[in-house]
Design goal:
Low-confidence stretches: none
Shape: globular
Helix content: 55-70%
Strand order of the largest sheet: 1-2
Mean pLDDT: 94
Number of helices: 7
Oligomer: single chain
Radius of gyration: 15 Å
């Protein structure tokens, strides 16, 4: 079993770095998530820590808009602190797909979302889109092949993009999540 908090923390650190590299002129640029601009994608990414914080405290997340890299890092720090409380990872909450899961599982799901959307943000803003191979491998082991199909059924993940079976793990992950690597 992978440490979901450690994985999320590492993925969020890279996300914060990519967000810090987004200039004001890029905020309205399109992203690989066709329905979102760069700013909307950043807001969605900050929604992950907001969701986790609410789940860890038994509440509902507040809407997120106009996020900056500093805002994102603050939210990540807040949720990482909240996740250290005893038994918080065993609490239950409702997933974005509508089923009940533990906060630990929510952290793992948010790790995956953070990792993939970091790639989206880097591509959209012309930054290095190489993801940490250890994080990619952990994500592949945890979520492929089943999770993308469940996400597609719920309308949260686009159609799979075929990649060769011997493609690098990053390409397999991105293809499964509907991205053209």
């Amino acid at each position: 079993m992978h440490d979901p908090v450690g994985l999320f923390q590492a993925a969020a650190q890279r996300s914060g770095t990519v967000m810090a590299g987004v200039g004001a002129t890029k905020l309205s640029a399109p992203t690989p998530c066709e329905e979102w601009s760069v700013q909307q994608l950043m807001d969605h990414m900050a929604g992950g820590p907001a969701y986790l914080l609410a789940a860890s405290q038994g509440g509902a997340p507040a809407p997120v808009q106009g996020v900056t890299a500093d805002d994102y890092r603050k939210r990540v720090d807040e949720v990482l602190a909240a996740l250290t409380y005893p038994a918080v990872l065993a609490r239950t909450c409702v997933s974005p797909l509508g089923f009940e899961w533990t906060v630990a599982e929510a952290v793992a799901g948010t790790f995956m979302d953070t990792l993939v959307h970091t790639w989206d943000l880097a591509v959209a803003t012309g930054q290095d889109s190489t993801l940490d191979p250890a994080l990619v491998q952990a994500c592949v082991m945890m979520f492929l092949p089943d999770m993308p199909a469940h996400g597609r059924a719920a309308g949260l993940v686009g159609p799979a993009v075929p990649v060769p079976p011997d493609a690098p793990a990053q390409d397999r992950l991105l293809g499964a999540m509907g991205r053209r690597p």
